[in-house]
Each structure stands twice: as structure tokens, then as C-alpha cells.
Amino acid sequence: MSQKSSMSELAKKEQRTAYKLLIPTMLILLLVAFYPLAQVFVTSFTNKRFASSQKTEFVGLRNYRKLLGVTVKKLEPQVNPDTGKVKVDSETGEKVYKPAYEALPSEPFLYEKLFTVGFFGNKYVVGASDADFMSAIKNTLIYTIVAVTLETIIGLIIALTVNSNFKGRGAMRAIMLVPWAVITVVSAEIWAWMLEPNRMGLFNTVGDMLGITEGQINFLGDPSLQLPSLIAVDVWKTTPFMALLILAGLQLIPQSLYEAARVDGASKVRQFFTITLPLIKPAIGVALIFRTLDTLRAFGVFQVLLGDRVYSLATYNYFQLIGNREMGLASAIGVVIFIFIAIFAYAYIQGLGVDVE
Known about the structure:
Elements: H1 2-43, H2 62-68, E1 70-75, E2 103-105, E3 110-119, E4 122-128, H3 131-163, H4 169-175, H5 178-181, H6 184-194, H7 202-209, H8 223-251, H9 255-263, H10 268-279, H11 281-296, H12 300-306, H13 313-323, H14 327-352
Helix pairs in contact: 1-14, 3-8, 3-11, 6-12, 8-11, 8-12, 11-14, 13-14
Domain ABC transmembrane type-1: 137-348
Subcellular location: Cell membrane
Keywords: Cell membrane, Membrane, Transmembrane, Transmembrane helix, Transport
């Protein structure tokens, strides 16, 4: 009993020592991270303007209501004044509705049309008090989910390849990091040249030479190709980073596990799903958190390639802060980005067991 008591006292002493050693780190975090974050939260509830002498006032949730406000308005069918009957399209046979107004009057904000939707024979127009912000959320989420998924799959394949024994493996590991080493703005400018909408661009030139296209594809001008083009740029640049983190996890797996599996007659596929994948889950989780954090804050690629034609959350934040000098509104956007990052990080930690393993 006395031995257990002494062990318990020793554990408590070690715990107290650990807490004391963490004090400097916590103070630094409070200074460089938590304090600025708290300031952003506080500013998001004000009407503060950037580089302005205007008096700052507390406005509560106004900034958030302006960003996230959505309204639904039922559209009334058009009626022929002569017959009193609802107008019907002669070609489609469908009812003709009154115009889906681009601006829907609603206090205290003006709502812009997002889209129209049919429901139980009725038609509704869905509007947002800030349609650009809603579009930025959509663009950022699509960009994040598709890019991170592709980077994880391709990165895993590359990591498994360079983790095997073959001649020139060291050189291959060094070469694969070249795209990651290129500065984001520089890589975006390189891709801007390759994506030129005429034969000055690499892809249009190659497509024309091979007879696949006419060399006039407007990658950055066609709305259906804009996000895929940005995703391609991000996948090219950051897949090596994912591969490197996953490779680090692969290196920690003892070879004795594979030897025992081979003795038991397990195939390569079975070894992957029963040994490799479960043991690299923490590494994949860390890689996903890092990459998701980066893509949710994507700025350089959007800004260089598309400017204000297509917004991400980060570029729209920049537009509100620098272009409109709406510091309070920009802070609210920053809080929304933080919330998205927290949700994704929590989902990864819970889903992949990063906190346990």
C-alpha cells in the first residue's frame, strides 16, 4: 500500500513539473495566438473601419446577419389580364412566373438572388443579404473537399511508391518536393501562363498539336472550368506535402509486422488494409488537418489567377478589409473561417482517432 502511495505521489510530482514547464509555452501562445484571436472576435461585433478615424460602435450580430442572412420569396404566376388565367409557356407548357427579382427588398438588408427552386408546384427565389459571401463559402468548401481528397489519395500512392525499395529512391524523394518548394504566387503565375485561353498557353498549345482541342479553351474565363483549374493547381503544388507526411507515418511501421503477415499468407492488399492503413491513420489525420486548414484559408491561387471574379473566403475577407475598409465585417468573416476550420479539425480527430492513437 505504501509503495502504491509513493508511486502516486511521484506521478503527481511529475505532473506538477510538467505543468510548470508548460507555463512559458502557454504564455507565448496567449501572446501571439489567443490574444489576436480574441481581438478578432471582439471586432466582429463592431462597425470598426480600417484606417479610419470613425468612432467604433458595438453593433451586436449585425455583421453576421449581413453575411449569413437568407430569405425565401414565393413567386406568383403571371395572370393574363384579359382572360384572368395564368400564363403558360407555349413550348414547355409550364406556368410563367413573375420576374425573379435580382434585388429582394427586406429590412435591414437588401437581398440578392442566389437561385430559384420549384417545390410542390410552386416556385421560390432564394436570396442572400450578401450573395458574394455565400458564393465564397460554396467555392471554398468545394475547393477544400475536392483538392484535399485528391491530394490525400495521390499522396498516399506516391508515399507507398517511394517507401518501397528501388534504385534512385532518394533522388525520387527529393524531386517530388520541388512543386511544394515553389512559392505559391510564383506557381500561380506559372499556371496562369499554362492556362492562357489561346495558343500562348501550354495546355491549349499541346491540345491543338494533338488535335484534342482547337487551342481556344478559356480555363480561367469559363465558369465551369474556373474551380477545376484552381484545384488542379493546388493538387500539383501540395500533393508532395501530403506524400511527405504520410511517408513519415509509413516509416514508423515495423517491418516485422509485414514479415509475420507474409508468413501467415496475407496478400499485399490484405497487408495494406489490416496493417498499413490502420497504423498510418494518425499521420493521415495530421496531414488532413494541415491541408484543410490551408485550403480553407486559400488566398494566393484565387487572387493571382481570378482576382475578384471568383471569391474564396480569404479573398473576400481581403476585399472587405482593404477594398471596403470594413474591418468589423472582415473580422466576422475571419470568425466564420475559424469555425469552419474547427469543425473540420474536430471531425478528423474524432473520425481518425488522432487524439487517441
